[in-house]
Structures are given as structure tokens and as C-alpha cells.
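Notebook, bench 3.
Goal today: get a predicted structure for NADH-quinone oxidoreductase subunit H from marine sediment metagenome so we can plan the truncation constructs. The sequence was checked against the plasmid map this morning, with no discrepancies at the termini. Length recorded as 230 residues. Pasting the sequence as submitted so the record is complete.
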Amino acid sequence: DIVKLFTKENIVPENAIPWIFNLVPLVGLVATISILLYLPLGGFPPVLSQNGDLILILYLLIIPSLAMVVGGFSSGSPYAVVGAQREMATMIAYEFPLAIIIISIATRLVQNGGVNVFALSTIASTPVWNIVGPLGFIGLVILLLVLLIVTPAELSKIPFDSPEAETEIAGGLLVEYSGRNLAMFYLTDGVKTVAMASIIVALFFPYAISGLFGLESYFAYAADIIFYLV
């Protein structure tokens, strides 16, 4: 479907602000792809890594949603404006819990004497499950459940799809988008889904499964990547 959309005509509404309307899909896609560059993949280290990369990832996660909001407001459609308003309200609801989860994990690492606690490399080398007691274990389970609830909200999936509710506001934010712009938004959604799943694994399950089965070489990398993605 995405490939077909790239071949379709890109229509800009008469009431839209053309340069903003056409720019924000690309901004959202670039930001989402950038997130993947900071995430490890199985036994492979991230392409980019620095102190505080978790904070950067948190900001990058906001950009695709902001791009959709700006695109909705710039389209000139009342349906898109309503969708943009809903998306802004939803963002306030899910970004705060996501920040709390990251800060909670970083705080536990600090208590354990960790350095650069907002770096994914630190979490990978010191899984939080290994440094907590019984009460801490319960706390981590709660944080994991909260993250699993926040994830569909971050991705605007059911039951958190009110900004794009097709039955109410005809697609909401994306109602005026078509062609390559719509394809980029759909591609952004797919990449962001992979990114959110990778973040869950990187924060709570930074383990290499190949060691459990004594795998080596390419088999080890393949097993770790499959475990990471599944």
C-alpha cells in the first residue's frame, strides 16, 4: 500500500499552508528513523550512542506526533483540526508516564552506583532486574505494565485512536493527506511501532539469548536479533 501511495498524486488542499503541509511528513519520518539509530539490535550495538541518549529518544518520540499535529492544523480542514486537538491532549497523557518510567530506571541505576544512567549502554550492561529486591521487582513489573499501556497510546492504536477516529472525524489528522505525504505518515507509523517495541526490549529485557543455547558466530547474532524483534 505504501509503495502504491508513493506513485499517487500528492494533493494539497486550497486552504492549506503548502510548505508546512508538505514538510511535516518528512520531518516525522526522519525523526522516527533517527530513533532506530540509537537502539541496539540483538548483539549489534547502536549506530549512534552517547551519554543521555534515552533523553534524546524521549524527545525524538514526540516529533512524529507534533508533525501530525502541525500537519493537521496547516491543512485547513475542520476534521483535521479536531484530530490535532485530540492528539495534543493524548500526548500530554502518555509522554509524562514514559518520562517517569525512564527516570525511575535511571534512579535505580544511580542507587546502584551507575554512571551515565541515561545511556542505553549502561542499562544493557546492568539489567535492572539484577539490581532490585522483591519490592523493586514488583515496581519494575508495574513500570513494564505501564509502558505496555502507554505504547498503543504512543502509536495511536485502539483504544487510543481518537485523533484519527475514522467513524467520528473521517480520519482526523490525515484526512487531507494523500500520495507520498500520506505514505510517509504510514511509514512513520510502521517504523515507530518497531522503535517502541525495541525500547521495551532495551529497557527491560537487554539480554542475549544466544548465550543460553551456546550459539556462536552468525547463529548467535541471528538468534539475538530474532529474540530482540519478537
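The chain has ten helices and no strands. The mean pLDDT is 80.
Flagging this for group meeting.
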